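Table S2 (continued). Query chain:
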Amino acid sequence: MFLKLFAASGLSLDRLRSFVEVGAAGSIAKAANGDSVRQSQYSRQIKELEDFFSIKLIERHGKGVRFTANGKELARISRFFLLGLSNFQRGCLAEQQAFQIGASATFIRHFLLPVLSDSRIIKHDMHYVTEIATDDEIERRLHDLTLDFGVINRSTISRPLQTRELGKWKLRLLVPKALHRTEASAVQAFNERQLPLILARSELDMLDLAVLKDYDPHLVCDSFLEALVAIEGHRVATLVPDFLVPAQTLKAFLQVRMPPLDSQDCRYRLAWNPRLLRLNPHATRTRDFLAESLMRRFRA
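Corresponding output:
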């Protein structure tokens, strides 16, 4: 069946592993951790793969490299095959399973960490690694199978990736009463772009809000959690999810409602690659556990 595939030299598991590692690192030097001997080895192994398949697999991109279209396809096939072997080995050795989950910093802190640190979960034979990532990064890495699960805000995702809704929320504009005593004056200042705002740019960008177009914020930070810390001085306003607004905050802040914000339902969705479920028999159980636990946490 595979006589032609192995009729010539140049194809091996080690070469495919090196190829995948170089692509994930973005450069041969990074994949080799600066080791000149390993760099030469990686370069040689990739060249041998290119000779074997008679195609170009990588190309220079800035100071690093990137896959060609053929390289992306070979990397996808190789990663799928190597992950399958790795999972098979873990099962044979009765090793614990580990799953990587990507999400925003706010979701990880407010939802994911409480769920994964529950004492009932710790007793299970599963390990978890959380990573802060944008929707674009999560989608790309789910396709690449370098991330097992992700939590995204966007409503659509490219095939064959699948999603399950976890819960919906709305943004709230928090304005210090030291700046504005009424919602009307706060809304006017916002509409006139005169309200000093702290914006969690990386998390807000995933929502694509037209209401923030051309707004020049006083300060930009990464997460909603950082924005909440920054408004403690009661001199700037911010936009945060309604589930993050503590009752005590409203003593010193107005929770301003605006039609552009109230009309937009933001949603968290668990995303995964169905290929992962075929590769790892434990992944389906983990997906269902994450979805059910996070939905309960969201409702609570």
